[in-house]
Design goal:
single chain; alpha/beta; TIM Barrel; Lyase, Ornithine Decarboxylase, Chain A, domain 1; eight-stranded parallel β-sheet; five-stranded antiparallel β-sheet
Length: 361
């Protein structure tokens, strides 16, 4: 069986560790986009709400709807709401990030049509990441018409593009300067200003002076902070394992897998595991780049990763049918596993397929 075990005690440790770095009145926005980075949004949301998270955040409307349908009632921020889902967003009382003039107009029109006022919303501003967000000119236009708009501005935020970089970082300093300028502008426009937030997990560690009114934390909750020293204070919450479904012997010179991806240099024992690129273990982990741990010993992935299977070399490992194989856990972490293939823990975790059984511990 292939399974992903989720340790909620480790999640609790991470939340408390990160919370302790904040002032008591700083809000905690827990990010659960992409199924809580592949680890199971509903169960993790329920736990984070019980721990005291002030907001949950998702990428798209349907992710928020799933949480609502599971009974999650706390505020949910939607980072990238789409035009076609505005009515559904409103129906489920989700809070959109308003990131463009066009979206603000469409959202306002929908609220007017439903006779809704003071609807909670957030303003996303671009300070240099150049992904989505209002420009300075867009922000000026927004402030000029804010009294006519049918929503209540709960927060204004931006996103740092290199918060994990060693300080001083010219790019990040420029973003912070831009954010402080727009913060001043918004504060001057409101008698009761909204909340302001800028930093993500890395920023919590690296820029304590920029915690402002709230922080947004995603990957840190799941055990990673993008630098080795910061990672030491956190605990990975996920353990991905599979089990041997077949063992067979290949002779010297025989190949394993598609396109003869691996040639045996000697008579070898091969174990087959039921996990592949359809489960999120992409082809870059093949050809001895990635590997698993069996009985505490490393077994390299040989040949190309298949859609539903990987093959590992267990020639020098004492193992048997149904033996458990660990892809990553708290010791051999997802971050280490990902780096072997030139990627990051975010991509690896978020790509884990729903067909992998999740077990909550």
């Amino acid at each position: 069986m292939t399974q992903l075990e989720i340790d909620l005690n480790n999640l609790t440790h991470n939340y408390n560790c990160l919370r302790q770095k904040l002032a008591s009145d700083t809000k905690f926005i827990a990010v659960l986009k992409a199924n809580a980075y592949g680890q199971g949004a509903i169960e993790i949301a329920q736990k984070l709400v019980s721990l005291g998270a002030d907001w949950l955040a998702v990428a798209y409307t349907e992710e928020g709807v799933s949480l609502r349908q599971a009974g999650i009632q706390c505020p949910i921020l939607v980072f990238y709401p789409q035009f076609e889902n505005i009515d559904r967003l409103i129906e489920h009382q989700l809070e959109p990030a308003l990131y463009s003039t066009a979206f603000i107009l469409a959202f306002s029109k929908a609220l007017h049509a439903k006779n809704k006022t003071h609807y909670p919303a957030h303003l996303k501003c671009n300070t240099g990441l150049n992904r989505i967000g209002l420009s300075e000119e867009d922000l000026n236009a927004f402030l000029a018409q804010k009294e006519t708009l049918p929503f209540e501005l709960k927060s204004v935020y931006s996103h740092l593009g290199a918060s994990e970089n060693k300080k001083p970082c010219t790019f990040t300093e420029k973003q912070i300067t831009r954010f402080l300028a727009l913060k001043t502008k918004v504060e001057q426009a409101y008698s009761t200003p909204p909340l302001f937030h800028l930093v993500n997990t890395s920023g919590i560690f690296n820029y304590p002076e920029c915690h402002f009114d709230a922080v947004r934390c995603g990957i840190g909750l799941y055990g990673f902070a993008n630098q080795t020293d910061w990672d030491k204070s956190l605990l990975p919450i996920a353990r991905l394992s599979s089990s041997i479904v077949q063992l067979h012997t290949v002779e010297k010179g025989e190949s394993v897998g598609y396109n003869q991806g691996w040639i045996a240099a000697q008579k070898s024992q091969i174990a087959v595991l039921p996990i592949g690129h359809a489960d999120g273990i992409n082809r870059s982990f093949g050809k001895e780049v990635g590997g698993v741990w069996i009985n505490g010993q490393h077994a390299p992935i040989v040949g190309n990763v298949c859609m539903d299977m990987i093959m590992v070399d267990v020639t020098n490992i004492n193992c048997e049918l149904h033996q458990k194989a660990i892809l990553f856990d708290t010791e051999h972490t997802a971050d280490h596993f990902a780096k072997n293939a030139g990627t990051i823990s975010y991509e690896l975790l978020a790509a884990l397929s729903p067909r992998i059984k999740r077990i909550i511990l």
